[in-house]
Amino acid sequence: MIKKFLKWFFRPTTRYGWGLILIVGIVIGTLLWNGLNWSMDRTNTLEFCISCHEMNDYAYAEYKESVHFTNASGVRAICSDCHVPKEFFPKLLRKIRATNELFHHLAGTIDTSEKYEQHRLAMAERVWESMEASDSHECRNCHSYESMNFHEQRRRSAEKMQEAIEKGEETCIDCHKGIAHKNPLADEEDVTNQQVWFISPAGKDRLR
Fold first, then answer.
1. Which of 3, 181, 183, 202 lies 20 to 30 A from 174 at CA?
2. What is the spatial distance between Cα 195 and Cα 153, in angstroms, rounded to a whole number?
């Protein structure tokens, strides 16, 4: 049996042995797989996300004022932590969809502050819709009700959190819009009903 396999493995085709073809295929496949993983990891970095001026000048500038960038615990959530799934195939799908963002970068869709503001609501609604569909999956990678110490939270915050647990109908983004970027509905909604993080002048986290 082994001899038959070895005979087939090294039997030449018209030009090359099947074994050689298989080995070359494995090497090429390994290189392509590692290249794919390297590319996805590279495009998940903060440096890559803000490499275009649209993100650096507008989205990143707002994010730097948020608790996800600077906080008392020193834990930082970067763009990919909130916008890209960690699981391989959902992450791959998100990367494929992101090619649409490259088109808009080249087309200059949001290359000025005026254009950015014009499209802010539409961009936010796409993100909110995606997060609602996944039950705020990326939020839950870091936050969980089970790990929360409600005694350390402000009374109103603790009440709202525990109410959400009991009802089980809401997802994180329903209440926590405007966490890392400006909420385009802030002028239209009663934002006192939303828990919005900001960095106080003293550098400490606060809820307002």
1. 202
2. 12
Among residues 123, 4, 8, the alpha carbon closest in space to that of 54 is found at 123
pTM of the shown model: 0.73
Q: Per residue in 139-151, pLDDT tens?
A: 999 988 888 888 8
Extract the tokens encoding 112: 């000025």
Give Cα separations from 59 to 107, 113, 120, 123, 166 (angstroms). Answer: 18, 11, 10, 11, 34
> Half-sphere exposure of residue 193, counting CA atoms within 13 Å on the CB side?
9
Task: Tell me the pairing of strands 205-207 and 197-199.
Answer: antiparallel
What the block records as the tokens of 171 is 């997802």
Token couple for 141: 């990678």
Q: Where residue 187 falls among pLDDT bands split at 50, 70, 90?
A: low
Retrieve residue 115's tokens.
């254009």
With vertex at residue 58, the alpha carbon angle to CA 56 and CA 64, rounded to the nearest 5 degrees, is 75
Give me the chain's average pLDDT, please.
84
Helix or strand (DSSP H, E) at 167: helix 155-167
Distance CA 66, CA 68 (A): 5
Q: CB atoms < 10 A from the CB of 99, how many? A: 8
* pLDDT number for residue 202: 41
Residues for the chain: how many in total? 208
Q: Give whole-number Cα distances, 105 to 42, 112, 117, in Å.
A: 19, 11, 15
Contacts of 57 (CB under 8 A, 6+ apart): 113
